[in-house]
Every structure is written in C-alpha cells, then in structure tokens.
Structure to design on (117 residues):
C-alpha cells in the first residue's frame, strides 16, 4: 500500500480539520484491493472446483475467502484504514461482487477438469 506518511496530511493540528488524502496514493491502494480480490477470486474458484464444492457450498466458500481477504487487507493496513482509504467500505465491500464472475468461471472450469473429464 502507498506510504502511510504520504497519504494523509493535515494543514493544522486542529481536531476539526478533515484529513486530506493524496489522490494518487488512494487510487493505487484501491487498485491493489481490486487486483488482490480478483486474484483471490480466481484462486478460490480453482480450489473450490478441485475440492468438488457444488451449489451453495461453493458460494459460501467464496464469501468466506472474501471475508478472509478483507481481514487480511485490514491487517496489512494495521487496522488504521483511514490512513490509506477514504472509508472502511473500500476494504470490506469494494470488489466482492466484481470478483464473483471470475470465481464462478474458474470454479466451473476446475470442477469440470478434475471431476468430469
């Protein structure tokens, strides 16, 4: 993730001031979250297919993988998400449903190769 000191700066030391986020670092951090979720969606789909998950079990596995990914991203940010992102939603929700199609594609492909052919 982009540097901690580079992302959040304030003009005054007052409690009423809102943090100013560096737009380039924020975009870089958002891209990192998106790419990591896409990568984990594909890997999770392959694992679910190899393990033979079908139906609802596979989707539960996907959301479990995304929950672990959210926890891992928050831990990477040392649970100080406001230093790196504009809100907690960037780590918890963004990209979860976007990676679902990649998960289903890789899940079906791996399942077909291992269990059908």
């Amino acid at each position: 993730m982009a540097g901690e000191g580079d992302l959040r700066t304030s003009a005054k030391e007052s409690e009423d001031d809102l943090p100013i986020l560096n737009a380039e670092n924020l975009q870089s951090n958002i891209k990192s979250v998106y790419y990591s979720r896409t990568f984990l969606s594909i890997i999770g789909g392959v694992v679910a297919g190899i393990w033979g998950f079908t139906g609802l079990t596979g989707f539960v596995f996907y959301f479990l993988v995304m929950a672990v990914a959210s926890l891992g991203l928050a831990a990477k940010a040392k649970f100080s998400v406001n230093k790196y992102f504009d809100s907690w939603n960037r780590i918890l929700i963004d990209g979860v449903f976007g990676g679902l199609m990649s998960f289903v594609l890789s899940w079906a492909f791996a399942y077909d190769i291992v269990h059908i052919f």
